[in-house]
Automatic annotation (TrEMBL):
InterPro entries for the chain: Asn/Gln-tRNA_amidoTrfase_suB/E, Asn/Gln-tRNA_Trfase_suB/E_cat, Asn/Gln_amidotransferase, Asn/Gln_tRNA_amidoTrase-B-like, GatB, GatB_Yqey_C_2, Gln-tRNA_amidoTrfase_suB_CS, Gln_synth/guanido_kin_cat_dom
Claim: Ligase is one of the keywords in the record: yes
Name of the protein: Aspartyl/glutamyl-tRNA(Asn/Gln) amidotransferase subunit B
Function field: Allows the formation of correctly charged Asn-tRNA(Asn) or Gln-tRNA(Gln) through the transamidation of misacylated Asp-tRNA(Asn) or Glu-tRNA(Gln) in organisms which lack either or both of asparaginyl-tRNA or glutaminyl-tRNA synthetases. The reaction takes place in the presence of glutamine and ATP through an activated phospho-Asp-tRNA(Asn) or phospho-Glu-tRNA(Gln).
Keywords of this entry: ATP-binding, Ligase, Nucleotide-binding, Protein biosynthesis, Transferase
Regions crossing the membrane: none
Organism: Amycolatopsis australiensis
Length: 501
């Protein structure tokens, strides 16, 4: 059992200390094949079916660099405003772990393909923080260990460890920030906003699935504290593989309060890796951290250096898409959004979804209304990302279309959306199956109106006497009679006609 460290109150932490952050993000590229061999680069599948002598590290097998992965690395570097190396090499990072059969990871060390960049990150209140990028380098993923059996199912209590090498050799780009200082109490938010902005950028580049839940985007959060009068950085801890945006924020915040409590009592911070526990939001110690010397990095002798020509780099620069931050500015203008409306849109992660809904024919205002209100609430209730709801922008646009053509009222449209979310089919099928079409047949409506007028004879007189608002009672009765499937506006028109004649 590890003793649970006492935590310092967050307000006290930021009054007494300045946090320093360093974020390492690993992104798996979506190339067809692995980094140094021709095995398919696919998530999941039967264990150990996507392997060959090279990615299993069998003696004598030789690696060959995947050109598409180098292209991806350069595009990422350019999008992060980095310089691209004229010449760089791979390096062996030596350590033992069962999920890495070669006993070294082919990575890059002092000669990364991209370096010295930055990413501008927008916080929830619109403030922009520039995060400096130290480097983006190429490497390969490791296999996966699964610890099974035993009392806890975790490594120390487990009876067996199973190994799956399907992931071994998948192309990875590691993007490392320079130490991020000066963020004060907002450090946890900056960490989350940075990973969010990076994810959006990588998605726009179409170089990765960027699925934190599947591990194609992983974040290690380095955190240290400096006393207010200190001149040097404190010792950092590195919380590994934090696997959601929210967890990045929570992990940083937890580490700040944990380290502060130790430092305040005159203790010292151990440089170590830590693990984040989703369930209670705490971190627990992993291994004591190797220093770079322990890895005995040396240039990889089996691979030739990479010297991307300037022509190639410029050609790749030409393939960069509009950056998410620029796109946001353009969209704000085109859709005439207030800063607040844009923020709401960003907070629920709906920009792309709304844009796609507009592309499918809906107006920006209506598309925004559905995603930011109804659908965001659904996503919240189901605890999934908006983009992972089982409804597509095209379907939302179709529902909006049915409302504007008068075939559905807003209320009915909500039911249709519920049906689509429940897997009942396309919007039109749901309308059919649930019998949700607006009653637009005037004779059916008139019959209901006559019935309601007969039941409330004084209302007709009031309307004739100029009290048009009195018609509301009849509209209500008709809506009730048609189970909400009448177009209220049309009903009102018909009542006035009826009473007038
Ligand atoms: N004192 C510190 N406090 C917080 N962050 C720091 C501190 N010193 C360095 N960092 C940041 O921590 C990160 C270290 O990542 P880097 O990849 O360079 O090394 P590493 O974690 O030792 O190596 P590995 O890739 O093996 O995990 C960088 O983002 C760096 O800016
Ligand atoms: Mg690193
Ligand atoms: Mg690290």
């Amino acid at each position: 059992m590890t003793a649970v460290a006492e935590l310092m109150d967050y307000a006290d932490v930021v009054e007494r200390f300045d946090p320093v952050l360093g974020l390492e993000v690993h992104v798996e590229l979506n190339t067809n094949t692995k980094m140094f061999c021709g095995c398919p680069n696919e998530f999941g599948g039967e264990p150990n079916t996507k392997v060959c002598p090279t990615c299993l590290g069998l003696p004598g097998a030789l690696p060959v660099v995947n050109g598409k992965a180098v292209e991806g690395a350069i595009r990422i570097g350019l999008a992060l405003n980095c310089e691209i190396a004229e010449w760089c090499r791979f390096a062996r990072k030596n350590y033992f772990y069962p999920d890495m059969p070669k006993n070294f990871q082919t990575s890059q060390y002092d000669e990364p393909i991209a370096f010295n960049g930055y990413l501008d990150v927008t916080l929830d209140d619109g403030e922009v923080v520039r995060v400096e990028i130290e480097r983006a380098h190429m490497e390969e993923d490791t296999g996966k260990s699964l610890h099974v059996g035993g009392a806890t199912g975790r490594i120390h209590g487990a009876e067996h460890s199973l190994l799956d090498y399907n992931r071994a050799g998948v192309p990875l780009i590691e993007i490392v920030t320079k130490p991020i200082t000066g963020t004060g109490s907002r450090a946890p938010e900056v960490a989350r906003a940075y990973v969010t902005a990076l994810r959006d950028l990588l998605r726009a580049l179409d170089v990765s699935d960027v699925r934190m839940d599947q591990g194609s985007l992983r974040c290690d959060a380095n955190v240290s504290l400096m006393a207010k009068d200190a001149t040097e950085f404190g010792t950092r801890t590195e919380t590994k593989n934090v696997n959601s945006l929210r967890s990045v924020e929570r992990a940083v915040r937890y580490e700040m309060t944990r380290q502060a409590a130790i430092l305040a009592e005159g203790g010292t911070i151990k440089q170590e890796t830590r693990h984040f526990q989703e369930a209670d939001g705490t971190t627990s110690p992993g291994r004591t951290k190797e220093t770079a010397e322990d890895y005995r990095y040396f240039p990889e002798p089996d691979l030739v250096p990479i010297a991307p020509s300037r022509e190639w780099v410029e050609q790749l620069r030409g393939t960069l898409p509009e950056m998410p931050s620029e796109r946001r500015k353009r969209i704000q203008k085109e859709w005439s959004l207030s800063d607040e409306a844009l923020r709401d849109l960003l907070n629920v992660g709906a920009v792309d979804l709304v844009a796609a809904t507009v592309e499918a024919g809906a107006s920006p205002d209506e598309a925004r209304g559905w995603w930011v209100n109804t659908l965001a609430q659904e996503a919240n209730a189901r605890e999934v990302e908006l983009a992972d709801l089982p409804i597509t922008p095209k379907q939302v646009a179709e529902v909006i279309g049915l409302v504007s053509s008068g075939e559905l009222t807003n209320k009915l449209a909500k039911e249709v959306v519920q049906g689509v979310l429940a897997g009942e089919g396309e919007p039109r099928e749901v309308v059919e199956k649930r019998g949700l079409k607006v009653v637009s047949d005037d004779s059916a409506l008139l019959a209901a109106i006559d019935e309601a007028l007969a039941a409330q004879p004084d209302v007709a007189d009031k309307i004739r006497g100029g009290k048009v608002a009195a018609a509301g009672a009849i509209v209500g009765a008709v809506m009730k009679a048609t189970k909400g499937q009448a177009d209220a506006k049309r009903v009102r028109e018909l009542i006035i006609e009826r009473v007038g004649s």
